[in-house]
Amino acid sequence: MEPAAFPWPTAGALALATAVALVWDARFGEPPPRLHPVVGMGRVLAALGRRVAPMAGGVMRPGRDFTVGALAWTLGAAAVVALAVGVQAPLLSGTPWWVQGLALGVLLKPLLAWRMLRDEVAAVEASLVRGLEAGRAQVARLVSRDVQALDDAGVRQAALSTLAENLNDSVVAPLFWFALAGLPGAALYRWANTADAMWGYRGVRGGRDWTWAGRWAARADDVLSWLPARLTAVLLLLVSGRAVPGNVLRAQAQRTPSPNGGWPMAALALRLGVRLEKPGVYVINASGRLPVPADTARALAWGGGVVAGWGALLVAGLTLAAVLGRPS
Fold it and tell me: Which of 177, 295, 162, 308 lies closest to 238 in space, CA to CA?
């Protein structure tokens, strides 16, 4: 007797789910925090972090801290994937492809977030109209850097950098992994990305030393984001309507400590012609001008184009795969 095949969404179901998730995001935005899986991941990571990372100023134990951090990340990732498989599998048992697609789309939506990102970045610009302090307070919701010394241009630089980086983290990459590995793939990516945001620090944060405890989380996110981040940069250039030489883009992307985040940020900075700086950390397109309000508007429009274009490409590709794979 042959073993039963593992249930997997059809390409048609994946295509429909992608469309449903993007439409749902545009129409309704985020679910309540108590029902949000990424919020739940954050709570779990916060609880684990209190056991994983040593208090600042304590005795450094690199081997122990790295091992515990890696083990905690791996166990959490396994639980997230198992839960996603457990939720997805019953939907695939004897149900039509379109039912699978509708259900998976609703479940996929909380794992991506364009509307919230767009609205938060737009709110930074609106807050700057009311004054610098309001702009600083608004951008502090988006970034971990110290905002108190930022001027108007610095606030915009922080907002634009976040927009570019999270265009990958919150949309392009989750959809990429969903197309490849269904709901478990998207869920695993969001676990890795959330863990990197909370644990992936080279030093002290929140009174704890993450130098070694967060290293596995940072590297795991680097691996899973490597290709999507570069795709995001290419999509930004395509949507903005002008190419940038590959060597120029690469040189600017490498000015950030992250092997991935610099790619969409460099693409955006070069196309806008602006300088994006995080004081003491990186300067992208150093010869560019300081950003102005019109740059935020253009960046948001290009971001919307990337989301629509990437979604359309995935839906078209998965639909074609479904048609070609259908028996004649």
Answer: 308
- Which whole-number Å values give the CA distances from 154 to 78, 160, 186, 269, 286, in the listed order? 40, 10, 33, 14, 14
CA distance 299 to 180: 28
Pick the closest to residue 170 from 271, 279, 22, 65 (CA basis).
22
Q: What is the 3-state secondary structure (H, E, C) of 267-311?
A: HHHHHHCECEEECCCEEECCCCECCCHHHHHHHHHHHHHHHHHHH
Q: Reduced to 3 states, what is the DSSP secondary structure of residue 266? A: helix
Q: Is the pTM value of this prediction over 0.90?
A: yes
Taking the domains of the chain in order of start, what are their residue ranges?
11-322
**In sequence order, what are the residues at sequence separation of 6 or more whose Cβ sits closer than 8 angstroms to the Cβ of residue 61?**
54, 212
Tokens of 51: 């056991």
Helix (H), strand (E), coil (C) string for 62-113: HHHHHHHHHHHHHHHHHHHHHHHHHHHHHHCCCCCHHHHHHHHHHHHHHHCC
Q: How far apart are CA 148 and CA 139, in angstroms?
A: 11
| pLDDT tens digits, one per residue of 277-312 | 999 999 999 999 999 999 999 999 999 999 999 999
Looking at the chain, the whole-number percentage of residues with pLDDT higher than 90 is: 89
SS3 147: coil
26's tokens: 């545009």
Tokens 């009174």 found at: 207
* Integer Cα distance of 42 and 112 in angstroms: 15
CA dihedral defined by 215, 282, 268, 126, rounded to 10 degrees? 100
C-alpha span between 269 and 43 (Å, rounded): 34
CB 270 within 8 A of CB 249: yes
pLDDT tens-digit readout, 198-254: 999 888 888 999 999 999 999 999 999 999 999 999 999 999 998 899 999 999 999
Quick one: which H or E segment has residue 10? none
Residue with tokens 């691996």: 223
